[in-house]
Amino acid sequence: MYLMIAGTMSNVGKSTIVMALCRYFTRKGLNVAPFKSQNMSRKFINIQNGKGKIAIAQYVQAIACEKEPTMEFNPILIVPKEGKTQVYFMGEFIDYLTSEHYMFDSKEKLFAQIRDILEKLSKNHDLVIIEGAGAFIEPNLKDSEIVNLRVAKSVGAQIILVSDISRGGAFAQVAGTIELMDNKERKLLKGFVFTKFHGDKSLLKDAPQILAKRYSIEYLGTIPYFENKIPDEDLLTKKEGEIALDDKAQIIKEIDRITDFIIEHIDISKIERIISEGM
């Protein structure tokens, strides 16, 4: 079973929600694995005795699943460095992002390998939770991207859309994303979540439910803004009170705290139903 957490844009909280769902369903007794086919990050962690590297987000998600982090959880790592952008596949440097060879040749070969990795993960796990990247749909990239809708379609993943309501325009972002999907693609989309909300939720009235009804999907909840102490792959500086990645006991404790908070503010029973129907 595949569940994809996709975003209407970057930095909406996809990684955190994937982490929380990984933790929740692991605690429920499922054998869960995280996955993000391609992640761009200046901050990564060496694993498997230095033989490989993955982004911090997938490292933390693996901990949430009580799994030893492996490169299969993040096969493609893109690292901006010294004015160039390096591309690693399964820990090995393969090319620079700007090269035509990567964009038009290597990328397609990697996509085939990504599908193989996903299939193997699915055979060995009850649930694979896939994280998308950036905006879920960019019309100019729809046929060539290897991390969002194309991945979901290739494995028939059930999709939950995440939108940051703190910046304004979240309703339009959800609607706009759906409008860029064809009817077959829309069948994979099961619901949406708002994140980083400030204020009184009653101010939303029944607008989320109306939007959900319009597109025959589920409104899964609104998560208030909150701080956490887990290292962030998008921040170049440390957070106040940030927990070291090698302190797994404290990382797990913080993951559990975040998971409990998120589950409190979403309709987890609907997500459980989405997963059970997809199995």
From TrEMBL:
Residues 3-227 form the CobQ/CobB/MinD/ParA nucleotide binding domain. Keywords: Glutamine amidotransferase. One of its GO terms (biological process) is cobalamin biosynthetic process. InterPro entries: CobQ/CobB/MinD/ParA_Nub-bd_dom, P-loop_NTPase. It comes from the Bacteria. PANTHER family: COBYRIC ACID SYNTHASE, DETHIOBIOTIN SYNTHETASE. This is Cobyric acid synthase. It comes from Fervidobacterium pennivorans.
